[in-house]
Amino acid sequence: MIIFGYISLMAFIRLILPSNTIQKKFYVLLASLLLFLLSSLRNINFASDTIGYVARYLTLSHTSIAVLLLNTIKGIGKDPFFYLFAKMINLAGANFQVWLALIAGIFIYTISKLIVKYSNEPFISIVAFISLGYFYFSLTGLRQTIALSMILISYKYLRDKQLIPFIMLVIFGSLFHTTAIVFIISYPLSNMKVGWKQGVGILIALILSYFLKDKVLLLLNHLIMGDRYKNYLNQGTSLTMSGFIIQLAIYIFCLCFKKDILKADAKNLSLYNLMFLGLIFQAFSTVIAEFFRVSMYFSIFSIVLIPKAILSVKNKNIRVIVYLLVLIALVAYIFWTDDFNGFGFFWQS
Prior knowledge:
The protein is mainly alpha-helical.
């Protein structure tokens, strides 16, 4: 499978490359470039939603900017600003493969910036990025992929408590996928003290989603506006607890090293609180599957917190063991999900 070839190559390069800031940037640049090529050159039949997006992109040549602009102003259709953006690319004469490459480039660039700036161990971050499903999702959920890119950029301003640019980026992201607006709540909650209150919050979310599912659905039916989101309620599609359990395991693992991580940089507290919020939303994916999409805006930051936890192990020998165990677990999860089975390039049938 090509994704394991990619991980093996990046592992080899990590072993032979010295550890310093310049090499780190080069390593992330190389890793990102290869991911970009995998994404932008993929066959459109791989990943469920891509071919639908491509079909819509091809019809844009017959749709005027005026119509798309009116749809955006009136909020007609699914995230109409995304298709207005696509129309601009279409007008430039770009075929759908170039359009897919542009979206891939935006997302991979923002991921690489996050890893370079905040990850202590880029290789683990990259493997986690693939293993935890974020890379695969970017191949199918194109609207949310751009929205998620804006959220990744906004993290710097969340971390540094710069409210205006943070809100502007979140709102801009929500134009591509309205669910991104929920990330606004991270601003007042990012500096919460991590303790028993988070545990209680997670427990309450589990109780509500498991024992009071019907009441939660009824409440959401009253709160949610728009036919599109009410359809999600009516479909009744839900996920298993596996995604929640994995996120919870990562959160607990990182909590074990909280003291040293926060000692190194107190602003890392925001990473814990983002993971906590991601867990809350993920818990409700057992009620409505679409909550996993909301969870992603928060949980994706685990890819830079995991390496911080590993490198917080003081004993070098134990650190190596923990590193290898985490790496094995992440790679094994890629095998288990088998997301990349059937991956091919656009020139392959």
